[in-house]
């Protein structure tokens, strides 16, 4: 079970890093599986979007993978230029909303259409969900090790059977915890 918590913590840290970097860089990956049809995944402005698109410009990209990394300023400039071609083109942040959405754009001259659907989630959500279990486990570990009665505060050795109060593992002298005294008096009565 411990290794699963480590994997969850690794995923949480990775999604946190992507969340921070997505405010500076826009990262997109696209897999074209047929001429004009593609699967996409992109992260930007604190969101991750998974989608599928059909059609597009008259010469769609070749079949295969394409990964693109741009700064947020470059993307905003690109959208300003696209505003001349597609009159209803909005700012990139306006396209990002939680959940499922569809889009459909057509060339005013009728040469091409671009349609598709996507699913968008905020990046803080997987960070929170994957960090929750490791955080609870870490809190329990700290509480058990440092705040449990009869436990060495340095190495976690069980001192309940040690009458001297000196840890045989690390040699640290431990003052009896108030709970330790109550458990020892309860055991004698």
Tell me about this structure.
With 189 residues, the protein is of the alpha+beta class. It has two domains: 23-122, no CATH class; 149-189, no CATH class. Helices cover 36% and strands 28% of the residues. The protein contains four helices and six strands, in the order αββββαββαα. The protein has helices at residues 2-21, 72-85, 124-146, 178-188; strands at 25-34, 37-44, 47-55, 64-71, 99-106, 113-122. It has a six-stranded antiparallel beta sheet with strand order 4-1-2-3-6-5. Residues 180-187 have low confidence and may be disordered.
Number of E-state strands: 6
- Low-confidence segments, given as residue ranges, are 180-187
| Total tally of structural domains | 2
Name the overall outline.
Answer: rod-shaped
Helix content: 25-40%
Order of helices and strands: HEEEEHEEHH
Report strand %.
25-35%
TL;DR of this structure?
With 189 residues, this protein is α+β, with helices and mostly antiparallel strands. The chain has helices spanning 2-21, 72-85, 124-146, 178-188, and strands at residues 25-34, 37-44, 47-55, 64-71, 99-106, 113-122. It folds into 2 domains: 23-122, no CATH class; 149-189, no CATH class.
């Amino acid at each position: 079970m411990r290794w699963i918590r480590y994997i969850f913590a690794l995923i949480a840290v990775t999604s946190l890093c992507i969340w921070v970097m997505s405010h500076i860089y826009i990262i997109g990956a696209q897999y074209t599986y047929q001429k004009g049809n593609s699967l996409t995944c992109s992260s930007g402005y604190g969101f991750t979007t998974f989608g599928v698109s059909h059609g597009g410009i008259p010469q769609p990209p070749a079949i295969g993978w394409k990964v693109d990394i741009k700064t947020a300023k470059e993307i905003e400039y690109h959208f300003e230029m696209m505003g001349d071609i597609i009159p209803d083109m909005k700012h990139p942040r306006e396209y990002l909303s939680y959940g499922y959405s569809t889009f459909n754009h057509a060339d005013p001259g009728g040469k091409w259409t671009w349609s598709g659907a996507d699913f968008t989630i905020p990046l803080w959500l997987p960070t929170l969900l994957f960090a929750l279990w490791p955080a609870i486990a870490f809190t329990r570990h700290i509480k058990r090790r440092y705040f449990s009665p009869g436990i060495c505060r340095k190495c976690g050795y069980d001192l309940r059977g040690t009458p001297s109060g000196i840890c045989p593992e690390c040699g640290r002298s431990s003052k009896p915890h108030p709970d330790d005294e109550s458990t020892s008096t309860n055991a004698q009565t």
